[in-house]
Amino acid sequence: MKQLKLASGVSIRRTIAEGTEQQTKAVKEIIEAVRQEGDAALIRFAEKWDGAALSNLRVAPEEISEALERFNPQLLQDLTEAAENIRTYHTSQQQQGYKLENSDGSYVAQRVAAIESAGLYVPGGTAAYPSSVLMNVIPAQVAGVSRIVLISPPDKDGKLSDGVLAAAHILGIDEVYKSGGAQAIAALAYGTESIAPVDKITGPGNIFVALAKREVNGDVAIDMIAGPSEIAVIADDTAHPDEVAADLLSQAEHDPMASAVLLTTNTRLAEAVSREVDKQLASLPRQSIAQAAIEDFGMIYIGETLEQVIQAANQLAPEHLEIMTEDAEAVAEQILHAGAIFIGRYSSEPVGDYFAGTNHVLPTNSTARFSSALSVYDFVKRTSIVYYSEQQWQENKDKIARLARLEGLEGHARAVESRSWKKESTS
């Protein structure tokens, strides 16, 4: 792994979802085809890119039942327990509105209400992600979203992953469709004969999914344009090199553009972790993916002091940040920017990915400086409410009109004053 000294600074900025001109053109054409042809376009694209001959886009109840019969009972129990942990954590995010009332009965208020519908995209291809179903659906359910849709690319037999369908069953989601890529995003955004449009689209995907989400954003809400996975580990001489290396590789195996960064003051630890990464890569099933990520986006940053290391971590603003140091909680208190923080030896990043209850849909590419994990807050909207009594209007109408005229908006001023004209004309 490459080593950087403090003077070099530390940054792993990668272009997210720009795409080539050809990819962008293809995505726009796919979206337009879905808008014009509806289901026919989805079926055609499924055969072209997934090799699946579909007669129906919606997953039938018997398909879910068959998937459950095949699914390992222990894994079903594990997913169920993980779902309970995620629901418990996210329930604490529920918000209430408020009302500020004056003595004359006038008031201002805020109403918090769930959006009506949400669509979750679940990737297919080289891996299936039941955990993504849990992480995206449960916050929406806790928020009170009344219609939640899953959509995922089918395999060559026209089926979805047993794990994805098992997760959907656990959460009580039965509106599940077979479609992938940009065409699935278009279907969620604009609707087809079979799929009614949704208000918000969440979930990860490849470059075509990311480009499609960017294209439909504004016509429908999206969660984020996520980039490749990231992990940074702050470690000192109390850390175990083999454990640090394993944690770095846990994210490197996601994507050839994933980043894995060790931040330390200890040169001996840095060298030991570097050797361990090479050793563990040799037996990793996704070796080629992880090795490409380590070679291109793997770094060891050596600072002179712990304060410099913490500063470098804040500069990175990584998606995942592990802290394996003496008094790790004190170090965590100084972290300003990270999608999620994992404190101590036993808080390996996959603990958060699957089971602890926190959400694994996190900001990447240093956007943790200004954005947050997916949460219940992403599935609600806040409406302001104003009730002005005649007394309040009388006391403040001249002030409001003056402010309106200050901005050159005569119509605004007259709208407030029109109540005066009516009052005078009827007296």
Structural overview:
- By secondary structure, this protein is of the alpha/beta class.
- It is 46% helix and 16% strand.
- It has 16 helices and 14 strands.
- The strands form three sheets. The chain has a six-stranded parallel sheet with strand order 1-11-10-9-12-13, with helices on both faces.
- Helix 3 (61-70) packs across helix 6.
- The protein is globular.
- The protein starts with a strand and ends with a helix.
- The model is unreliable at 4-8 (pLDDT under 50).
Q: Enumerate the strands of the largest sheet in spatial order, edge to edge or round the barrel.
A: 1-11-10-9-12-13
Sheet/helix structural class: alpha/beta
Low-confidence stretches: 4-8
What level of helicity do the residues show?
Answer: 40-55%
The overall average pLDDT, rounded, is 93
Give the topology.
Blueprint: E1 2-5, H1 21-37, H2 39-50, H3 61-70, H4 73-91, E2 98-101, E3 107-114, E4 117-121, H5 130-143, E5 147-152, H6 162-171, E6 176-178, H7 181-190, E7 200-202, H8 207-216, E8 221-222, E9 230-235, H9 241-252, E10 259-264, H10 267-281, H11 287-297, E11 298-302, H12 306-316, E12 320-324, H13 328-332, E13 340-343, H14 349-354, E14 380-387, H15 390-406, H16 410-425
Parallel strand pairs: 1-11, 4-5, 4-7, 5-6, 7-8, 9-10, 9-12, 10-11, 12-13
Antiparallel strand pairs: 2-3, 3-14
Helix pairs in contact: 1-2, 1-7, 1-8, 3-6, 4-5, 4-6, 5-6, 7-8, 9-10, 15-16
